[in-house]
């Protein structure tokens, strides 16, 4: 009987010790689990930065004469540039230039319109760049052209041609075909007959006229060299001797 009691006591004692150990282990597990959950709760989420969208231009309208604005004198007027708001944008940069100046002028605003004093009787080009302070990327609108109305304007120069093809920065793999198809769009407020000069070359500051075109806005150019970046632009002229130059675009073919 004594031996049996001793064995029973030993078994019961071991069971109690095991249960206690297991309970402590479970408590530790719970604490560890709680710690992990707390750490998860304390983790900072990385904010997602959305890039800005481009705006849609409203006014002055593209390829029109602007007769609205505040008259200052025969040389100057104030015109309100307007555009639609864009998503994920903190502020906007209005860029504009007129036909007599090659460099752009910048105005900054957080609004979707801005008053600018500009020359009367001049052709202008403008665009808007959307900016987000948290993003390194910008979004640029279309380029629009207009005439700011002057006094006694008798004839207008044609608007700069809008380049269509090849697109700026275009890269084509076309070793079996050395021809390249050029296309653009042009207009004139006076509806004068227009002619076009296609400038082409491997350096943007030294382009050569490769073709003079009458009453057409497309051309197939032969034997474009491979592996070289080419630049192109269009000069548009009317029958009154007025002319305008488009932007310069580039393309490469491999």
Automatic annotation (TrEMBL):
Residues 22-45 are annotated as: Disordered. Residues 35-44 have a biased composition (Acidic residues). This is Fibronectin type-III domain-containing protein. It comes from Arenibacter aquaticus.
């Amino acid at each position: 009987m004594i031996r049996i009691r001793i064995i029973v006591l030993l078994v019961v004692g071991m069971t109690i010790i095991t249960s206690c150990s297991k309970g402590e282990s479970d408590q530790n597990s719970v604490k560890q689990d709680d710690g992990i959950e707390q750490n998860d709760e304390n983790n900072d989420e990385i904010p997602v930065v959305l890039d800005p969208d481009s705006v849609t231009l409203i006014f002055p309208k593209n390829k029109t004469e602007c007769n609205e604005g505040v008259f200052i004198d025969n040389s100057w007027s104030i015109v309100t540039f307007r555009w639609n708001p864009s998503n994920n944008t903190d502020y906007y940069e209005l860029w504009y230039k007129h036909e007599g100046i090659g460099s752009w002028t910048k105005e900054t605003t957080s609004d979707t319109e801005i008053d600018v004093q500009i020359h009367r009787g001049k052709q202008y080009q403008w665009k808007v760049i959307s900016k987000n302070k948290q993003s390194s990327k910008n979004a640029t609108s279309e380029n629009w052209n207009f005439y700011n109305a002057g006094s006694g304007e008798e004839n207008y120069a044609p608007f700069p041609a809008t380049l269509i093809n090849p697109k700026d920065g275009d890269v084509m793999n076309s070793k079996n075909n050395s021809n390249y198809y050029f296309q653009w769009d042009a207009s004139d407020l006076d509806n004068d007959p227009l002619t076009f000069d296609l400038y082409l070359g491997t350096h943007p500051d030294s382009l050569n006229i490769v073709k003079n075109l009458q009453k057409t806005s497309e051309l197939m150019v032969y034997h474009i060299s491979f592996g070289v970046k080419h630049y192109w632009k269009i000069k548009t002229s009317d029958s009154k001797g007025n002319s305008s130059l488009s932007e310069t675009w580039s393309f490469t073919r491999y």
